[in-house]
Each structure stands twice: as C-alpha cells, then as structure tokens.
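call fold(seq) -> tokens
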Amino acid sequence: MTPPPLRFLVLGLDGGTFDLLDPLMEAGELPFLKSLVQRGFRAPLASVYPPKTIPAWYSFATGQDPGSLGIFGFTEPDGGPGKSRIVQTFRPAEAFWDLLSRRGLRVGVLNFPLRSGYPLNGFFVPGMLSEHPPTYPAHLQASLETELGEPYLPELPAYRESDRSEWIGQATRGVEQRGRAAKILCDQYRPDFMFVLFRETDRVQHQHWSQLARPHDEIPADLLAFWRGVDSACAQTDHAFRALGGPCVTLVISDHGHGAACADFFTNRWLLEEKYLTLRHGGESWRRRVLSRALLASDRIGPFRRLLTPLADRLRGGARRERVGRLLAGESSFEAMASKIDWKRTIAFSYPVPEGIYLNRYNPELTPERTAAVVDEIRQKLERYPEAHVEVFDPKAIYRGTNLDQAPALLLRVDDMATELRMDFSYARPMLRHRPAYFYGSGVHRMNGILIASGDGVPGARSVDALSLLDIAPTVLEGMGVPTPAHMTGRTFGSRLWPSAS
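ret:
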C-alpha cells in the first residue's frame, strides 16, 4: 500500500552534524529540533564525495551523483592551466522540484545555491553564488524586501577575527530573516513542497568549531544565540508550512557533516617533492619558504603567537591587504603559481578541486599507456605515505554516472577528513600536522550529515541506520505521488518514514 500524497518541507542546515546538535538539544538550546526528533526519526545522512556544498546540494536536488552531473567541487576547469570558474548550474539535469512543478504541484525554493532563479510553478530565491541573483518571479526580491521592511541579506562576507561580533551578528540576523521570509512566501504562494537552506550554519562551524565543540557551559554566548536563532527560524518556517493544511512531513537535512580540522595536506607540494609537478627555474619565491618556516616556529612561542593572529587578520580581507601580503611573502596560490609551472614536464597537479589529482594533458609524453602506470604509481605512493592515512579513490569506482570528462584522475581523503586538503604552495612540506593559531577556521567537512523526519504517519522516537543524501529526492517524490525517474541514483526510504503504509 502506498502512502497518501503528502506535502513536504525540507529544511537544509548546511554542514549540520549530530556531533554538535545532540549536546545543544540535550542542553535545551534547540527545543524545536529536539521536538522533531522526539516525534519522528533520525539517521546519519551520508554525503557524496567530495562532500562539498555545491556537488552535495546539486546531487540532493537532482537525485544524481557527481559522476552523473560532472560536478566535483565549487569550481570547474575553464580554459588553460590554472584557470577555473564557479560551477554555473546543475543543468542539463533537473531538480526533483521541477518534476513536481510540471505535475501542477506548487513548489518554493529559498536560498538554494544557484546563480539565478528560473521559471517553475511557484517561486525560486537563489543564494550564495552571487550578491543579488535574479529571483523567479523577477519582482520577488523587491516585494519580499518590502514585506520584510529591510534589504534581503546576502551571503556572509569573508571572516576576520577583528570583525567577529559584527560577523556573528550578521549570521544570526540572516537566519532570523530567512525564517520571516519563509513565512511570507508560504502565506503568499501556499507551496505543496518547500526547500529552505540555512547556509550560515556551515560558515559559523568552519570558523568556530573549536569553540562549539566545548562543553555547553563553555560555548561563547554569541554562538549559542546564533544556534537558538537557527532553531527559531526552523520552527517559524515549519509552523507557517503546516498552517496551510493537509498531511505533511518535515525533513531536516544537511549536505555533509562537520568536525575538527586537525592538520593540512598540501597536495601540490607533495607532487612537487615526488617530481610529478615541475616548476620552472626560480619559480618559487624564497620569501615564501623563509617566511613560512619563521611563522611556524613563531607560532610555538607564546608572545609571538599572540601577535601573529592580529597581524594575519590585518593582511586579510580586501584586495589591497591581499596585495601587501603577497608582496611580503611571495605568491602561493595555485592560480598565481600556474604561470611558473613547467607544463611540458609536469605530469600531475591538484586543481581546481583540492580533493583531486589531475593528469596534465599539456605534457606531450603522457601517452594513454603511460597514464595508467602513473595513476597506479601515484596511488601506491600516497597509500604508503608515512605521515598520514591517505585513501585514494578512482572516480569511476565511486560514481554510478559516467559524466567524468572534468573529473580528476584520483580523489583523496586524508585521516578520515580530519586533515584538510589544500592546493596552494604556502608551506615547505606537504604535511602541516600542527595547524597554526593564525590559520582561519577550526572546522572542516565530514561525510555524515543529518536527517530528521517528522510528520503525518511518521513513527516517533526512532533512530535508523545511515541513509544517503541521494535518497531524499526519490523519497519526496514517492511521498507526493510522483514516479521516480530511472536515472536517479538514490532509493526511497519511504518505508521507514511511514512503515504502516508499506
């Protein structure tokens, strides 16, 4: 027996993890989310790999993995070596809400990471990828701002420690405004399906994971206030959606998890050491090598360490400050170093996805026969790397889809993601085991996100085994009485949502 058609609200907490939510719920900071858990069920939600915002949310929306979409990170190659661009769209694939729209169901999408809204039976307010992306309908942002009584807030700016109070305040105002906007849009459009994304959760966790991971009574008050704001905005959205009437289900999901960033692995530095990547003579700044060693040494000395963070803070944020930093230390980004790489001799490099190793198509000696041997050689060396646990994946083995033209030859995961992968040449050694205090951010992504489900027909207070982010689309479609397309990678878990109807 199939369940009766339902209405669905999906609340996205970018980077949400039970490692943080559980203690906050236990401490009474998140009463609404806790009530959903008590009335419904929860499960870890496995992300795609790499578990990055763009490929993960696009896979959620389409029900297809990165190998089907050809999307593996925030950016994609664009022209010659060292050139990339932000991923433009998930199309020609379509989102599951497009299927709902064509069936005559009313849909609403708020703050999904896309450069522009597009026509559907309802509304689309994109976010993240540009400051003021066009909405659908075109007049929607202006009318929404009129109803809100204030400008619609854009994505959070780059973080600077000196701006902490203002930055966290803006993050808190952003989630509060999104809750009010969701209520306004619910009342105006009366959607059968609605997706609302809170991007600020990921940004706050990246910067302040070390403080959020403390015992509850040691977490700073501004961070607790932020999370109370998230909970309140979710409650406001849920109440507005349910007030429209009819049986409905609320899903709270995340695109990936989060955890402590314990170390950094500089893949291009390793490739340089192993002679897979070659710089032209004089290609690397001596200032960068000297300064990086001095900074690492100074970071271990108390008085110097206290000076480094505000100094680094002053050199970040703004083109002029960045230019001063490069003048003092020399270039280190892959984009800047690309012109100094000997592309005729280089075999492999890591860019534009930091988890990936790409083979150099500009090397005339890298024949198809040589390519297979090089890939196997790099894999074996990395798996034997003595300073970290490196897992190496073949994209063809982990993706069902075959749209792999722009995929890296290999994908890496280091120390179960506690070590962050980087593409720049900032330090003289590949492994930075002691993460300096002047680094920005203490959190990094993990594979397992969250799923909380509550609503009509959903049994209460249950935990189930891990599900996949790719399973959300077919589950919503089934719950709303729409057939699941055969090309979707995931599988419905509807029998767990409403087992009595199975």
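Confidence is low (pLDDT under 50) at residues 320-330.
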